Every structure is written in structure tokens, then in C-alpha cells.
Amino acid sequence: MDFKEIMELLPHRYPFLLVDRIVDFKPNESITCVKNCTINEPFFQGHFPGEPIMPGVLILEAMAQSGILFAKKSEPALKDALMVFAGMDKVKFRRPVRPGDQLVMHLTLIKKKSLIWKMKGEAKVDGRVVTEAELMAAIQKS
User: Fold this and answer.
1) Which residues are catalytic?
2) Are 37 and 125 in contact (CB under 8 A)?
3) CATH code (residue 91)
4) pLDDT, tens only, 74-97
5) Total count of domains within the chain
6) Rama region for 127: left / alpha / beta (φ>0; ψ in -120 to 50; rest)
7) Who's near 33: CB < 8 A, 6+ residues apart?
8) Which of 11, 40, 86, 114 could pair with 138 as two cysteines, CB 3.0-4.6 Å apart?
């Protein structure tokens, strides 16, 4: 999936769009997305000066955005639905993410029930796990 299609499915925009590419997708099974972390990311300026690392909450946000892409690609009827990050469990941060790293996020479906999608996610850099979590996305009713 190219960047244009990602922007059609996610409402996020710079500087809060945290998915650059989808490299693998299996409907109702899994998705793998990439975020290229460059030194010009605004968060690296203040987190932390002299020792820049990507904030853990932004890694989780990138994983959540990947999950929303997964749900919307799996069920095209959700294309225009507003989906929000609804919860997280079993979060572990293993290693820092630094400028120049390519963050690869892989999410698999645990279950979907009514308006909630629950997914297991892993984020890796160079094949090594940096973050893992169970994430929930919810369809926001207007």
C-alpha cells in the first residue's frame, strides 16, 4: 500500500502520521507496517537533547495507527469510520528507537467483537523487538 492510500484511510497528518508504508497485509489476520525514524522528527529535538530516542507513547501510537489500517483494509465498509485507540495491555519496552532506525510493526488479530478490534503487536528495529503490546481499536459512533 502506498503512502497516498495510507493518508486516505488515516485521519492523521504531519507531524502525527506515524506510518510510512505497509509491507505485508493479510485480511483479518495480520499487517506489517514501517515507520522510518529520521533525525528531523520533531520529538527527537526534545526527547532527549544529546541522546535522542523515540518516546514510547509514540511507538504505541504508530502501532495503533497500523492496527487501524489493518481493520480498515480488512473491512472496506470501515474506510470512512473514525477508529480510535481504545486500550493497551501487556506493554513492554525492550530497547530504544533512535534516529536512523526503521521501526517495523507487526500486528495480528486476536479477536474482533462488535465495535472493538483487539490485536497483538510487536515493533522491531533490525529484527530485534523494541516494544510489544496488546492494542484495542474502537469504531467511534457519532
Assistant:
1) 47
2) no
3) 3.10.129.10
4) 999 999 999 999 999 999 999 999
5) 1
6) left
7) 19, 20, 21, 22, 23, 62, 65, 66, 69, 104, 105
8) 86
